[in-house]
Amino acid sequence: MDSYWNAPLYKDLGLDKDNYELAEPQDPERVAGVTVVEVSSEGAFYRGSYVHGLFVVADADLQELPKNSEEGVPVFCRWFGGREEDGTPRFQIDPRKAKLIRNYTGYVVTNLAEFRMKSSAR
After folding, report:
1. How do residues 43-90 score in pLDDT, each as one tens digit?
2. At 3, phi and psi to the nearest 5?
3. pLDDT of residue 68
4. What percent of the chain has a predicted confidence (pLDDT) above 70?
5. Cα–Cα distance list, 117 to 53, 114, 120, 121 (Å)
6. Residue 79, SS3?
7. Considering only CA atoms, which of 57, 35, 55, 37 is closest in space to residue 103?
8. What is the DSSP string of 13-36?
9. What are the φ and ψ backbone dihedral angles of 109, each rounded to 5 degrees?
């Protein structure tokens, strides 16, 4: 997924958000024909933040969600605009609050960051 692989490394962004409980889904992107994990409210955990939404699964061979959320599910999702140095993030996902969807077409979350209100020009 280009929006992930073309992002700068998180460690090079100079941010102090290694863990941040207020990170929220951001930057929707339209995809077609991919496998996603659909996560309901607080069904996924990453770097101190509980999140929900649709995320593209980075492991094309994943057949089912792990029974143990500690194993994690690799997804294409940036953290404050940056990507991991080694591969993709692994979200801890509660399998009771998530499901895999194959051949999905629609919008997915591509970034987790702090929500900021956009100011309107006057």
Report:
1. 999 999 999 999 999 998 899 999 887 889 999 999 999 999 999 999
2. -65, -25
3. 83
4. 95
5. 20, 10, 9, 13
6. strand
7. 35
8. TT-S-SS-TTEEEE--EEEEEEEE
9. -80, 135
Identify the bridge partners of residue 101 per DSSP, sorted by sequence position.
36
Mean pLDDT of 95-119: 90
Phi and psi for 11 in degrees, rounded to 5? -60, -25
Query: Which structure tokens are listed for 66?
Result: 């792990």
pLDDT value at 117 more than 70: no
Q: How many CB atoms lie within 10 A of CB 46?
A: 21
CA-based torsion, 68, 71, 59, 17: positive or negative: positive
pLDDT reported for residue 1: 81
Side chain identity at 9, as an amino acid letter? Answer: L
CB atoms within 10 A of CB 102: 11
Structure token pair of residue 71: 């194993």
Tally Cβ neighbours within 10 Å of residue 79: 22
Q: Which residues pair with 59 in a beta bridge?
A: none
Report which residue type is found at 25: P
